[in-house]
Amino acid sequence: MNIEQAILETIRTLPPEKQSELLNFANSLKPQAERKRPLQSMKGLCADLGVSLSEEDIAEARQEMWKNFPREA
Protein backbone atom coordinates (compact mmCIF):
# COMPACT_ATOMS: atom_id res chain seq x y z
CA MET A 1 0.00 0.00 0.00
CA ASN A 2 1.40 3.41 -0.94
CA ILE A 3 1.01 6.64 1.04
CA GLU A 4 -1.94 7.86 -1.06
CA GLN A 5 -3.87 4.64 -0.47
CA ALA A 6 -3.10 4.75 3.26
CA ILE A 7 -4.35 8.34 3.49
CA LEU A 8 -7.55 7.53 1.60
CA GLU A 9 -8.21 4.50 3.78
CA THR A 10 -7.74 6.58 6.94
CA ILE A 11 -9.91 9.45 5.65
CA ARG A 12 -12.76 7.05 4.88
CA THR A 13 -12.91 6.06 8.56
CA LEU A 14 -13.41 9.67 9.71
CA PRO A 15 -16.77 11.35 10.22
CA PRO A 16 -17.76 13.91 7.53
CA GLU A 17 -16.94 16.96 9.69
CA LYS A 18 -13.41 15.64 10.29
CA GLN A 19 -13.02 14.87 6.57
CA SER A 20 -13.97 18.48 5.83
CA GLU A 21 -11.46 19.71 8.42
CA LEU A 22 -8.77 17.54 6.86
CA LEU A 23 -9.59 18.83 3.38
CA ASN A 24 -9.24 22.42 4.59
CA PHE A 25 -5.88 21.58 6.15
CA ALA A 26 -4.65 19.87 2.97
CA ASN A 27 -5.70 22.88 0.89
CA SER A 28 -3.79 25.18 3.25
CA LEU A 29 -0.62 23.18 2.54
CA LYS A 30 -0.81 23.67 -1.26
CA PRO A 31 0.52 27.27 -1.37
CA GLN A 32 3.46 26.32 0.86
CA ALA A 33 4.40 23.44 -1.45
CA GLU A 34 4.13 25.67 -4.51
CA ARG A 35 6.32 28.38 -2.95
CA LYS A 36 9.16 26.01 -2.19
CA ARG A 37 10.15 25.48 -5.79
CA PRO A 38 13.89 26.04 -6.17
CA LEU A 39 14.90 29.36 -7.62
CA GLN A 40 17.04 29.40 -10.74
CA SER A 41 20.31 31.24 -10.80
CA MET A 42 20.97 33.92 -13.38
CA LYS A 43 23.26 31.43 -15.09
CA GLY A 44 20.46 28.88 -15.21
CA LEU A 45 18.00 31.38 -16.63
CA CYS A 46 20.38 32.26 -19.48
CA ALA A 47 21.67 28.73 -20.13
CA ASP A 48 19.47 28.07 -23.16
CA LEU A 49 20.33 31.42 -24.76
CA GLY A 50 23.92 30.47 -25.51
CA VAL A 51 25.15 33.37 -23.38
CA SER A 52 28.11 32.78 -21.12
CA LEU A 53 27.99 34.85 -17.92
CA SER A 54 30.54 34.73 -15.14
CA GLU A 55 29.82 35.43 -11.49
CA GLU A 56 31.70 38.71 -11.95
CA ASP A 57 29.42 39.69 -14.85
CA ILE A 58 26.37 39.01 -12.73
CA ALA A 59 27.77 40.91 -9.73
CA GLU A 60 28.62 43.88 -11.96
CA ALA A 61 25.11 43.91 -13.45
CA ARG A 62 23.57 43.83 -9.97
CA GLN A 63 25.73 46.73 -8.80
CA GLU A 64 24.81 48.75 -11.88
CA MET A 65 21.12 47.99 -11.46
CA TRP A 66 20.98 48.90 -7.76
CA LYS A 67 23.48 51.79 -7.63
CA ASN A 68 20.79 54.53 -7.61
CA PHE A 69 18.36 52.70 -5.39
CA PRO A 70 17.58 54.88 -2.35
CA ARG A 71 18.95 53.57 0.92
CA GLU A 72 17.77 54.38 4.42
CA ALA A 73 20.29 56.14 6.60
Question: Would you kindly provide a written description of the structure presented here, covering whatever features stand out?
Answer:
- With 73 residues, the chain is mainly α.
- It folds into two domains: 3-35, no CATH class; 39-73, no CATH class.
- It is built from four helices and no strands.
- It has helices at 3-12, 16-35, 42-46, 55-66.
- It is elongated, with a radius of gyration of 23 Å.
- The model has no long low-confidence stretch (mean pLDDT 83).
In short:
Helix content is 64%, strand content 0%. The protein is an all-alpha fold and 73 residues long. The chain has two domains: 33 residues, no CATH class; 35 residues, no CATH class.
Structural class: mainly alpha
Q: How many strand units?
A: 0
Radius of gyration (CA) equals: 23 Å
Query: Low-confidence segments, ≥5 residues, pLDDT <50?
Result: none
What descriptive keywords fit this protein?
mainly alpha; single chain; 0% strand; 2 domains; 73 residues; 64% helix
